[in-house]
Amino acid sequence: MFSESKKGRNNETTRGQSNRIGKSTSIKGDVVSKSDFRIDGKLDGSVETTGKIVIGQSGIITGKVTCANADIQGRFHGELVVSNLLTLKSSAVIEGDVTVSKLSIEPGATFNATCAMKTGIKELKSSEGKKADKTA
Q1: Do residues 47 and 65 touch, judged by C-beta distance below 8 A?
Q2: pTM, whole model, 2 decimals?
């Protein structure tokens, strides 16, 4: 049922698809990737990815993050740009400027940031215009 060739192909497709910065690691600089990231250590600088960023409970990022989705349990200070969903767990501490499409905040999270929500406003205006045209 399971051949060696299928197992080998599966490992090749998942290998290199995510990156991890461990608890005992501290990085200063800029990171650019097309893969997901999990940060449990400390990063001073910027991260740009088309994937997902996960900041673990011990993770700290100071700088700028640009990503598609983000799950935050740790600390973030700086500019955060998430093109889709930002999820803040109860242990998250966020300070700075945030731009998101969708936002989910669990009770207990600290969110001291200016927040701009994109895309939702444009959809609302276009649907209001259609309703106005039909009633006229």
Answers
A1: yes
A2: 0.74
